[in-house]
Amino acid sequence: MTPRDADLFGGLPRTESERIREGVVLLPGFARDPALVAAVRAVQDAAPPRRMTTPGGLAMSVAMTSCGAVGWITDRRGYRYSPIDPETGRPWPAMPAVLRELAVAAAARAGFTAFDSDSCLVNLYEPGARLALHQDRNERDSLQPIVSVSLGLPATFLLGGDTRTAPTRAIGLSHGDVIVFGGPARFAFHGIRPIRAGIHPVLGACRINLTFRRAL
Ligand code: MD6
Ligand code: FE
Predict the structure, then answer these.
(1) Alpha-carbon span 122 to 71, nearest angstrom
(2) Does residue 181 have its Cβ closer than 6 Å to ligand 1?
(3) What predicted TM-score, i.e. pTM, was given to this entire model?
(4) Which residues surround ligand 2, an ion (CB under 5 A)?
(5) Residue 212 near ligand 1, beta carbon < 6 Å
(6) Is the CB of 179 under 6 A from ligand 1?
(7) Which of 30, 60, 124, 190 falls 20 to 30 Å from 131 in CA-CA distance?
(8) 211 CA distance to ligand 1 centroid (A)?
(9) pLDDT at 43 over 80
(10) pLDDT over 90 for what percent of the chain?
């Protein structure tokens, strides 16, 4: 057995799952394979993370990039998916198989057995960076969930309701944790509190979040 095989059970990492609410499942430590970090680094080398501009003209504090058939972008013209990275003028890097397979396995563990991903948004947070409450609604098929992987420094995920002003619940996320977000929660408002300063043994002074989507 290789070290990676030792962590696997029937092809899936041997971890618990916690149902946070209808449509939201937390899989603590599901994404601890070091091969994931190496794959993310390769994506970032091919398409460097950059702070994009919101339609309102503000620079986001989170630096973003993507891999897969399309990538999520924002600029003065709005939020959308694009097959071309506007920064490089080239297609986004292909989604590494180890990332895609992890996302499919996590979705299946949460009950979404038909999920496959054609786009992974890579969010890079330095201490102080945050993500304001938002809904993810640029994907074509709202029956498909989003699979969210946290790496590096810990974060507090705020899970709200279907309106911006609904009360939020705080969920702590650490390196390797996965959230599957779908069903009746698919359009719930959510965000990330400012990341606290620290040094993570694998990633250093940053947090990386991967959100796998079926965009097209
Ligand atoms: C983050 N996550 O964890 C940002 N979106 O850094 C998201 O915005 C998100 O975790 C949709 C579904 C799950 C998520
Ligand atoms: Fe989101």
Answers:
(1) 9
(2) yes
(3) 0.93
(4) 136
(5) no
(6) yes
(7) 30
(8) 6
(9) yes
(10) 93
